[in-house]
Write a structure and sequence with these properties.
alpha+beta; 9 helices
Length: 320
């Protein structure tokens, strides 16, 4: 095997990195505009390293690692990624890249490394296993055919909205909601509900500035971000991500405040975003949930989602 050379990536490489991620897993393309935005707006206190792997002068892979502020994460988790263009798929090459980025992440002082691979990426799963990673969690992926299910979903959205209104809840979009403190309130709802997500990689608190940057991503329009309001406070949200250049439409996040659960609000607000997607002519949407997130899995099944190959998370505990 001829070893590739790896160079640090700059902001000018963001689109190239998106192209390489797309070439590595074409089933779910990465949008170059969204990827550049993410690189331009890192979360405060987080550390990142991006690299482009080249073989005889040709870019063949994108690898990276990222971790949160150490003061918030004493166990020192770090997420690593390897995206090798499928044209160059080779077990030895994949193992080299996985080992290389693992070593680089360990040099940053990280102790628990997490990597992801799709169920239908056997070569990457094998390479990560050979590098010392072990399976940890499973992320289920679901697909909803809006062309076939659109009429039913639109009707259910109307019914759900009327039922919520009868219980004193208003459904609107963030763009239409006129509360002056709406984004602070939305961050508060986000903070309360994120802790309910089954995960190994810690979900760390973020600043208001970072929340606003994340909420203003090119794939996240505020007129397509649905919110359930009661007493001028957000109690549930759901939105879809619409990539501006390429890729599929995905559910970004759906949640309900603990004090308002058991009323069907998560399903109702998700229906509003799906009905809007139908009206916009979106043919299919995707969503993903941890395999232990039983409430959202039940909602997906009721809405008519069909399960597709999901993502495996794997852990590597670095020896001190």
């Amino acid at each position: 095997m001829t070893k590739p050379t790896l160079r640090p990536a700059t902001i000018a490489d963001a689109a190239l990195a998106a192209d390489l991620m797309t070439a590595a897993y074409p089933r779910f393309p990465m949008d170059p505009v969204v990827n550049r935005y993410r690189w331009e707006h890192p979360r405060a206190g987080w550390s990142h390293d991006h690299y482009i792997a080249e073989l005889e002068g040709r870019p063949i892979a994108y690898v990276d690692w990222t971790h949160g502020p150490r003061e918030q994460d004493p166990e020192r988790y770090c997420e690593v990624g390897v995206s090798l263009d499928r044209v160059y798929t080779d077990p030895e090459l994949l193992s080299f890249l996985c080992g290389w980025v693992t070593d680089e992440a360990a040099k940053s002082g990280s102790l628990i490394l997490e990597a992801y691979a799709a169920e239908d990426e056997p070569e990457l799963l094998e390479a990560l296993t050979r590098t010392g990673y072990e399976r940890d969690r499973f992320e289920k992926v679901w697909e909803l055919d809006l062309t076939a299910q659109g009429s039913r979903l639109r009707a259910e959205a109307v019914e759900a909205r009327a039922a919520a209104a009868n219980d004193g809840y208003e459904m609107t979009t963030v763009a239409a909601w006129q509360s002056p403190d709406k984004f602070s309130a939305l961050l508060g709802l986000d903070d309360v509900t994120r802790g309910d997500i089954p995960t190994t990689f810690p979900i760390l608190a973020e600043t208001f500035e970072n929340f606003m940057e994340r909420s203003s991503s090119p794939d996240r329009r505020h007129d397509r971000w649905w919110v359930v309001v009661r007493d001028d406070q957000p109690v549930a949200v759901s939105y879809l991500r619409y990539p501006p250049v390429r890729g599929y439409v995905w559910t970004g996040y759906t949640c309900t405040h603990p004090d308002h659960r058991g009323r069907g609000l998560a399903r109702a607000v998700k229906l509003q975003s799906l009905a809007q997607a139908v009206e916009l002519g979106v043919p299919v949407v995707y969503t993903d949930n941890d395999s232990e997130n039983a409430p959202m899995l039940r909602i997906n099944e009721r809405l008519g989602y069909v399960q597709r190959p999901g993502f495996v998370s794997l852990l590597n505990r670095v020896q001190k």
